[in-house]
Design goal:
This protein has about 160 residues and is mainly beta. The protein is built from 1 helix and 12 strands; from the N terminus they run αββββββββββββ. β5 and β6 form a beta hairpin.
Length: about 160
Amino acid sequence: NFAQNVKDGVTPVPITASITAKGTVLSPISVTSTRDLDFGNDIFPGITKVIDKNSNSAGKFSIMGEASKEVNINITSPGVLYNGTNTLPFVFSETDGGYKITGGTMVDFDPIIPVNANIGADGLLDIYLGGSVVPTYKQVGGEYQGTIIVEFNYTGN
């Protein structure tokens, strides 16, 4: 017995075992800004201009990551578009966002609320953004721009 051996001055021989610690880090998500959200050259003062997420003028991001893994989509809206010091209000409706995997159907989401989506079996996921600009009747003419930022992160699922 261990205690008796120590008492008798005999050094016990330890019994050992080992395991390997291992894990695989997923490939980072890559994103491409495929298409700008373009309201065109015909925004009329006092008339709201709406771009549907399914139109060819909708914004589009394409991401590539680990197949079937869940990602969080977090969008930051500029709130206004700028032309120098002039501003043009920009808003999202609760269905202005959509995501789709290859061969899948569009899933609507509210762009101002972060949402989780699964990357497709081919490692691809497309995100579409519509929106509206709301010019005043006295809106100063010219080209207005703003930056929409989309952040993607694996959720661990």
